[in-house]
Design a protein that fits this description.
669 residues, alpha/beta, eight-stranded mixed sheet, rod-shaped
């Protein structure tokens, strides 16, 4: 058991190590599981604080193709101000002059209304610099234009991303009174191109600048912005996990706004995003909720998430919870796998996986806690697979041990059952009730002296092979051969309820075998007619592997074993074939015919034990003899020897070869 815990600990530590290293293949799967949480949760209803003015197909059809004259955009922004919009966020990059005097109109509008927040782009890599055709990393003019939007007194967020260049708006649109009126457009794509998080703050030239979404939220919050900023949960990588709502934001067509046809939707006090949403104009990005989400919707999702404050958190707390989900299931499996059957282990494994997923998904949806997914699952799968494999190897080793221990002593069916259910036996030693079987060839010493060795061995093999088979067929354990003698056990190592009956059946079958084959062996091997005596006794014995560390046998010890051996020897005295002890008689008397023989004293014990003869296919004259024999035996026990002798002599008149009657006639003399 200790090894299972050590293995579970090893698998767990390996999974923990992977959770720190974060190999790329695992991170790919981690992202897919992260997306699945959104898919199962579904979209959320956004607040009514964020509204989208859509430059859609209807607007293009009425007002002309995109891009529109900037004077028209100025009118659009003025309409929004007139209707009470608190913050106006154009998802439009004013980076180039239109060559039209209307640029001045837009510039005046931007300067006049502090509600309008404009965006720019940071360049994060040399490739982006080349793509945008920007050769110098530092553009003093653009930097000065955004400098007044610098964040002050930000929390000590580690690992904030740092830009190497800047693509700002036209200077005409950049010099905006009121200070904090610009933010960067940049969203972060994962390696698979999906947007799952964004940078709310980017460092540039030792200053910290907000994203367009963050700037809009700060504008809404006003004086509360600095204190609110302190509780923003960024990941250890300095990123903000977007709790996506979906596409359910209130929308107004731009043309309807300009015509004043939006009276059903109030814009007072709202954050209004303006963006191109018509087909072909959208800057679409894949997200966990939508494979093609327009950038304007991305901004809307982020702003609504910030204002509602239903943040997703991935921090030290979630890491520690993830570690618990890595550790606990592995130890649960380590505890249960060696104790249960494989099918139960499999269902527990599935249950653990479902429980892990349930906990992770519940914390994600209800608490906004983003735990690791793949690493707890990997720990569980690795622990289940590794521990099951180890358990299989251990069980196979046990099966081989059982097979090697009993292959010469048990039938294949019993060995197979023991291998499949090793828990049914205790090889280390136990006390149990069973039936012991001893069989011996009569006058074997004389037979050995008169028979050539090679003939003797051939004969013994011819006798012992079928004798062993009939024991094994009845689920007996062949304990050992003692020269010509056979010792067997019924009821161990595999528990058998009817072990006494099986032993009696085996003894009777052996006598029938000798009767059938005796004359054949006599002619074949030139030996005297074979006679066999069998002793059976049922009782509590000690059973187990007994011997040295390097060599041992499964056997039984105890007084019951000694009595069985003595009963086998007493067959010579009473002229019987099978003698059994009292417990064997009581357990088998309903199935087999017996007669009481005598009482004998157990060696080393004071008490006397009544013994019985098992009659094998008794002829009718023997059955008729039994009442007379019982009367004679009762008379003998009363001490009336002369009448008893007369009765036993009458028994011999009925069956002259009856061994017990012959014994008692002599004893009464």
């Amino acid at each position: 058991m200790r090894r299972f815990y050590l293995l579970a600990l090893g698998f767990t530590l390996f999974a923990l190590l992977l959770s720190f290293v974060r190999p790329h293949p695992f991170e790919v799967m981690e992202r897919k599981f992260y997306d699945l949480h959104f898919t199962l949760r579904g979209p959320l209803n956004p607040t009514d604080q964020v509204v989208i003015v859509s430059i859609d197909e209807k607007s293009l059809e009425a007002l002309g193709r995109w891009p529109w004259p900037r004077g028209l955009l100025a009118r659009l922004f003025e309409k929004l101000v007139d209707q009470g919009a608190k913050v106006i966020v154009p998802d439009i990059f004013f980076s180039e002059p239109s060559g039209n005097p209307e640029d001045i109109l837009l510039s005046r509008t931007l300067r006049r209304y502090p509600e309008i927040v404009v965006g720019y782009f940071f360049l994060m890599t040399d490739e982006e610099m080349k793509e945008k055709g920007i050769e110098q990393r530092e553009d003093p003019l653009s930097f000065e234009n955004i400098r007044q939007s610098t964040l002050k007194n930000i929390p000590p967020w580690p690992h904030l991303k740092e830009a190497i260049g800047l693509q700002g708006v036209l200077p005409l649109f950049a010099d905006l009174p009121g200070g904090e009126r610009q933010g960067f457009f940049n969203f972060l794509n994962d390696t698979d191109g999906t947007v799952r998080q964004t940078s709310l703050v980017i460092r540039y030239r030792d200053h910290f600048f907000p994203s367009l979404s963050l700037q809009a939220a700060l504008t809404v919050l006003g004086d509360d912005g600095p204190s609110w900023l302190q509780k923003l949960p960024l990941t250890p990588q300095g990123e903000f996990l977007i709790n996506f709502r979906g596409n359910g934001f209130s929308r107004i067509s731009a043309v309807d706004l300009l015509k004043g046809e939006n009276r059903s939707l109030s814009l007072k006090g709202k954050v209004v995003l303006v963006g191109a949403m018509a087909a072909g104009l959208e800057d679409n990005r894949p997200t966990p909720l939508d494979p093609l989400m327009a950038s304007t919707l991305l901004q809307a999702n982020t702003i609504d998430n910030l204002l509602r404050e239903d943040f997703l958190r991935r921090d030290r707390v979630t890491d520690r919870l993830s570690w618990l989900l890595i550790l606990i299931p592995a130890f649960v499996l380590g505890l249960l796998i060696p104790r249960l059957r494989p099918i139960a282990d499999f269902f527990i494994f599935l249950g653990v996986l479902l429980a892990q997923w349930g906990v992770i998904h519940f914390l994600f949806v209800q608490k906004g806690l983003v735990l690791q997914n793949i690493y707890p699952f990997f720990s569980t799968v690795l622990s289940y697979g590794g521990l099951s494999l180890y358990d299989y190897l251990v069980q196979e080793k046990k099966k081989r041990f059982i097979s090697e221990t009993f292959e010469h002593y048990l039938s294949r069916d019993v060995i197979r059952e023991l291998s499949d259910h090793p828990e049914k036996i205790r090889l280390g030693g136990e006390r149990k009730e069973l039936t012991v079987f001893f069989a011996d060839i009569r006058n074997f010493t004389s037979l050995v002296e008169a028979t050539p060795p090679e003939v003797l061995v051939e004969f013994l093999n011819s006798y012992l092979t079928p004798a062993t088979d009939l024991i094994l067929e009845r689920k007996g354990l062949l304990d050992k051969y003692i020269g010509d003698a056979v010792m067997a056990v019924f009821g161990s190592p595999l528990p058998v309820v009817d072990h006494a009956e099986r032993a009696c059946d085996s003894a009777a079958a052996l006598i029938r075998l000798v009767r059938e084959k005796g004359k054949i062996w006599q002619r074949q091997f030139q030996i005297p007619l074979l006679r066999v005596g069998v002793g059976l006794n049922t009782g509590v014995v000690t059973a187990g592997n007994i011997g040295s560390t390097h060599r041992f046998d499964y056997t039984v010890l105890g007084d019951s074993v000694n009595l069985a051996s003595r009963l086998e020897a007493l067959n010579k005295v009473y002229g019987t074939s099978i003698l059994v002890g009292p417990a064997t008689y009581e357990k088998a008397k309903e199935r087999f015919p017996f007669r009481e023989i005598d009482e004998v004293q157990v060696r080393g014990k004071k008490e006397w034990v009544r013994i019985y003869e098992l009659l094998v296919d008794p002829p009718s004259e023997v059955l008729r003899l039994l009442p007379l024999y019982q009367e004679a035996l009762a008379t003998f026990r009363e001490g009336r020897l002369a009448p008893a002798k007369a009765l036993f002599q009458r028994c011999l008149q009925e069956v002259p070869e009856d061994g017990p009657s012959q014994f008692f006639v002599q004893r009464c003399a």
